[in-house]
Every structure is written in structure tokens, then in C-alpha cells.
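INFO  loader      accepted 1 record
INFO  loader      residues=264
INFO  predictor   begin
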Amino acid sequence: MSDLKRNHAQTGDPAIEVSGLVCGYGEQTILRDVTFNVARGEIFFIVGGSGCGKSTLLRHLVGLNPPTAGSVRFLGAPFSEADAGTRRAQLRHFGMLFQGGALWSSLTLRQNVALPLEEYTSLTSREIEELSALKLGQVGLGGYEDYYPAEISGGMKKRAGLARALALDPEILFFDEPSAGLDPVTSRKLDELIVEIRAIFGTTIVVVSHELASIYDIADRVIMLEKQAQGIIAEGAPRTLATTSEDPRVKEFLTRGTGKVPIL
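INFO  predictor   done
INFO  writer      dumping C-alpha cells
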């Protein structure tokens, strides 16, 4: 992967700006004072052990849950504090791949990919059909347009979910545990596809993951969350953190408790 990976992060205003974010459910606070930026064109990972709040942070970033405090800005514009209509317009600029692909089982792959095109564009039915097929082809699923989710493998479902996330040519892509449930070979191919998307389209990519192979292979930069700290305990390039961090929690996570960067 090292020959594929290129840091395309651009200078200028960040793609994502998070300031003082407090995340939780009801009266339960999960994360406090979360602050970080993601550069345009960066592959950025949110990492940490189970239960540290990775997926919770992602849900609050994309508006599935409102933050208790703090702010989120996308491409220079306020998001978390904006009204519903403004947030809906901003959703046009990013896509999301959920853990299981989140495909509608009663729809074909083409019909699944067509959903955001039908909701957010004024394209004709023929144009939507053709564009949906194009997006499936971009993720290696050309010829599978009329298959149903039950008829394809787990890795193919992830690719179909990615095709749907790409339907509107988003500037930002979010991934929630993309390698979950995949074998190592399929997981690596998905990592390669993520890097390829960034290289071709300049897309800013945010990935929630605890998979060290993916973290070391494709992440430009990471933030690490920790359950007891209820927030970020480290930020930087993963190999740099693994070799230079003096925080034992960071060392243990990034070296699998060995004290050495694993050979992956």
C-alpha cells in the first residue's frame, strides 16, 4: 500500500473544523471538549479501543445526534448550529458508508445507489439509472446492477454502500468501521479503493476504525479517543505516535501491547 498512499492534504481552510464538542445520549456524556481539524484531501482516522466513543463522535459529526455543546463546520460553513434546511443542503456535500453497508434489502444495487440521486437531484429516471450504474462500476461492481443485497458477499455489500455514498460526488466521505466483518484480503482491497478515491477525486475521508492494518496502511493522521479520558488523548501520524508517544495507553493500542510497531 505504501506505493499507493499519497498525502493529498491541501493547505487553506480545513474541510472539517470541530471545536469544544460534547457528545452523549440524554443525560449521559460520552465525550467532552473534542477539538480537531481535518485538512482537505486528508485520510483521517478516529481510533481507539472498544467503547471509547468513536461511532458516537461520528454520529454527532454528521448530524444523526445533536451535540450537547460545541460546534462542527464543514467546508467553512457552520453545520451543527445551522437550521434544519441549511444542514440538509450541506448533506449534499458528503457521503457515509455505515458498518453493514445499510442497503435496502428489497432494492437492487442500482436502486440503492439511485436513492440519493432521486432525493437531491432533478435528473431524469434514465440519467439516474445510468449514473447509478457508473458509480457501481467505479467500485468494481459493474454487471451487478440488478443483484439484490442478499445475492452478494459482505465485501460487495460494502462496495455497493460506497457506490451509494459516492452518488452525489461528495467532497467529504465518512466510513464507520469499513473493515468490520471482512476477511484480511477483502479489507485490504477496500483500503486500496479508499486511497484510489482520494487520489482520483481529492475527497476528504474520515474513517472510524480500530483495525491497525488499515490505520498504518492508509491514515495520514489520527486522533485517538480513550474511554476514561472521555476525549482525545493523542493526535498525529500513526507510526510517529507509536514510536514517540510517552502515553502508555497510546503505545499499548498502536503496538498491540508489544512496545513495537507491528509488521503488517
